[in-house]
Amino acid sequence: MRHWIAGLAMGGLSVGAATAGVSQEEADELSKSLTPVGAVQAGDEALGLPPWEGGLQEAPRSYKGAGRRYTDPFPDDKPQFVITADNLDEYRDKLTVGQLALFERYPETYVMPVYETRRTFANPQFIYDATKENALNAELSGGGDTVTGAVTGVPFPIPKNGHEVIWNHKTRYRDFSVRRWNNQAAVTSSGAYNLVKLREDVTFRYSQPGIEPEDLDNVLLYFLQVTTEPPRLAGQILLVHETMDQLREPRAAWLYNPGQRRLRRAPNVAYDNPGTGSDGLRTNDQTDTFNGAMDRYDWKLVGKTEIYAPYNSYKIHSDEYDYDDIIQRGHIDQDLTRYELHRVWIVDATLKAGTSHIYKRRTFYVDEDSWQIVAVDIYDKRDELWRVQESHTAMAYDVPYLAPVLESVYDLLANRYLVQAMNNEDDETYSIDVDWETYFNPSNVKKLARR
């Protein structure tokens, strides 16, 4: 794969000491040569990569309004070509290690339909305004695990190291408070699966318009997850208070077990402990592709490249398709996917000596327009590729922000996979209005459990 190496200063910059914001001259490039959140505005005509021209902020006529299904704004688009095992060598330099491995594992059935690139990402103006302030004032310290001087917008739109890129992913705008269905299926080698239905309410405290950094009280977000199916898991409730500085104050988590009718602190909801209902196919820190503390890895910013990334995935998000249509033997129905050429930052995370995690190394591919992680190559302790992760996204064009609509984790060794973040057979993600101080209080979990 051809890399745009970002420079030795990026790859090797130490974050042991505090690193401060960029210069005024650099920040002034936001909304000029750079987009308001830090991507390169220019395209590359030779590659078929268009310039960013403000993104998609106007809903198509087929959209029925807030809380209704996001419909495809490009219904007439057809694939420009389809990558198969037979023509793979023509496109190898635009594919991730994990994508190549999936072609090797499933040469008869795995395909990638590649469409016209549409740089649809957009955010509200207040995010752009806050991002420019953050560029000047955000500081990274504590070995990269502490961010100060930033709020609401992207903290590091002109990143200098791998920590900053991943922080941009963790803090990206996804509305202020939302409810979504995060349905997931652990798929066996035969294609059979068990569906776990998770209803999740999230308040992104960091993203509140007009808030000051000192008002966060070290809280990034509040998260409440209710398992509704299958019956053996129904009624389980997980509450998380996610902190900004997890070294000073680790995330607080509580788990309600309906069988015991007790709410307990859950310190294991972190790192490589298995995620809820995942049958061991993902770790807690793989929710939202990556979340949580970063202290167990060294994070190296490798540079930039172009890859065929899952993007504008309205088709596979459509309520015209049931989960049985999407979930196939070996992999999801790739005919329902949409890939486009996009520029991505590449970050290598390597396990630190003296720490533990089931993943020795992870390579993250982070969309430069949105700071969404779109793909991950995951290696085991033998340095062999173990799992492959992708995030299929679509623009919530009425808000606006980029939302994951299906996330996949392929286990190459077990010949199994997990799909999550689906809501095809349930309600669309929508904004909610909650008193977050009360709603995300542990005492409220007990009230919810009694309903």
TrEMBL record:
Residues of the signal peptide: 1-20
InterPro entries from the UniProt entry: DUF1329
Keywords, sorted A to Z: Signal
CDD domains registered for this protein in UniProt: LolA_like
Pfam families cross-referenced by the UniProt entry: DUF1329
Source species, domain of life: Bacteria
Keyword Signal: yes
Descriptive protein name: DUF1329 domain-containing protein
Organism field: Abyssibacter profundi
Taxonomic placement: Bacteria, Pseudomonadati, Pseudomonadota, Gammaproteobacteria, Chromatiales
